[in-house]
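Quick note —
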Amino acid sequence: MKILFIGDSITDSERNKNDPADLGDGYVKLLSEKLPPLYEDKTFTFVNRGISGNKIGDIAARLDECLAEKADIVILLAGINDVLHKYTEGTIFDSQIFEQTYLQVVQKIKESGTVLIIAEPFLLDVPDKKRMRKDFDMVLAAVKRIEAQYADAYIALDEIFAGVSMSVSVSAYSLDGIHPTHRGARLIADNLIKKIRPFID
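Predicted structure written out below.
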């Protein structure tokens, strides 16, 4: 079974781009270590195609290359950079264009015949990111509208991180509100495994 991960820096996690088999050091790597022992009779291939800095338009532009992997399951985690770059690089964030492009990406993945698991983008509550929340909520709303129609499974990561951060410091899960710590990456991996297993069992 081949599982393909598409996304931005959260998925990329400093993988070696010169080695197509490298998984980085984030949630993809953790998942690749945790899932196979649960299925000793199955063989898994994990493919990380996250690229740091990617917005949804960047993912749309390289989607054909990703889908050429002919994966059984595709996991999509993207959306934060469309908002982040507005504040860090002065780019324009248009929620309607984001939704249209995200929809095109999701439709194309589904047309390829694969199982699609959408992982919700997330923004943790750290002081210098609070100003981004209004725009980010529009991203979340768009993703939720689309997943309800197209996703085979959905993980509400923004909600999950908000919940666990009520009892444990936000910094345990992310120092900058965007990139997960090892503990944060483990939380993503564990929740993804729960969503993947019904399509294996």
